[in-house]
Amino acid sequence: MAEKSINFYDNMRAQAQKNYNSSSYWLDMVETLQTEFDYDNLDPEKDPPPEFIEKVLITHGIAGFARVGDSVVCCTGGRDGDPDYYYRGREFTGCYALGDVHGTIGKDIAIGYNNSMYTPDIDILRYESILTEIDVSERLNVLYSRLLRVPVVGDQKEKEAMTDVINAIYKGESAALVSKNLFRKIADGKNVVDIIELTDPDTVKNLQYLAQYRDKVLQRFYTRHGHSLQTTGKVAQQTTDEIHGQDSVSMIYAVNKLAMRKRMCDDVNKLFGRSWTVDFSELWKVNLKQFEQTVENNVESEGGDDEKNSSTADSADDTR
What we know:
The chain is an alpha+beta fold. Helices cover 52% and strands 17% of the residues. The chain contains nine helices and nine strands. The relative contact order is 0.12.
């Protein structure tokens, strides 16, 4: 037998590996979304880290902010108490690393939401599941694309002899058969062992399609979150503005999240005397600028058409 790998991932059972892959994708996507916004004017000694605020919003959908001494802490939790006109509790109960908090929203507690639906980014779980299954499919295609011949033997002794030879070959060592049964078959001029092939080397071609599918899945995820990834070249008769037309679609959700975070900062500032600000990070600003440029180009184009039509109409009046 081959020596056991020191790589802990290789030593996991299949289900444990799948769970590990799933967790890795979850961490990757959460970490990516944590870079979507930049916060300014947060005191590193008295205010929560921006990445922690984002993690709470992304994974819980709601964050509560309370004063503890001179500090403002970010808490996980939820609304409760008597409902307002929109069935939302007027109070908040939550916890932070060193304790629990409870208070009235707008008086003791400021609230922040991930989006206008007050929900976490649950689509991460869906894409995490799809990407994990792609990993499983890739691994199976790699394993079953190997040219592996399986010997068929007649009894346990033949099996042990053949296994010893295969293991020796795997280690790069010389080997000899010690089975009398196999020796007799060779002496009689018969085929030593029958061979069956349980693998198909042609399946390796499926890997390219799985890789493309992974790119498409990631493209769908990041497009929703503000990055309209272009993984193919433009087709004939397709303008640059048409390519960037989906920038406006990709920015819809991102702009919604930014608006909710600005409202959150305003509430924290009013309640606790802070001066927090939030905006898109540089990476997300690139797509926002492309979107704004596309809109500007389209407006100018439409205005040009109107002027052209007006000029044509005036010319026709002069002719009459």
